[in-house]
Amino acid sequence: MGEFAVSPLGGWESFYVIVGSSGAALTGLMFVAISLIAGFREQRSGREVAAFATPTVVHFAAVLLISAVLSAPWHAATYAAVLLGLLGSVA
Fold first, then answer.
1. 49, 38 Cβ separation under 8 angstroms
2. Does the pTM of the predicted model rise above 0.70?
3. In which element (H, E) is residue 8 found?
4. Is 43 helix (H, G, I), strand (E, B) or coil?
5. What pLDDT band is residue 86 in, cutting at 50, 70 and 90?
6. 17: which of 40, 43, 53, 64 lies 20 to 30 Å off by Cα?
7. How far is C-alpha 90 from the chain's CA centre?
8. Cα 56 vs. chain centroid, distance in angstroms?
9. What is the pLDDT of residues 29-60, one digit of tens each?
């Protein structure tokens, strides 16, 4: 009987499922939020929408990036800790 070949990328399968579905959900939430803002009867300027949308997108992206780092199949937790430390120092 033949042996099963283990792919070196096998551990990344769940990573792509988690990050891909999370990214899609966050994108959908952003469209809903912008649609709700645009649906108000009061006239909104592009500046007001940008003032809401920019920090929201930045925070969503930061959460997605942290989640991606923590769900990656690291060989040691030290790599994830160093990367999170670097990301935290940038912010």
1. yes
2. no
3. none
4. coil
5. very high
6. 53
7. 17
8. 12
9. 888 877 777 776 666 667 776 777 778 788 88
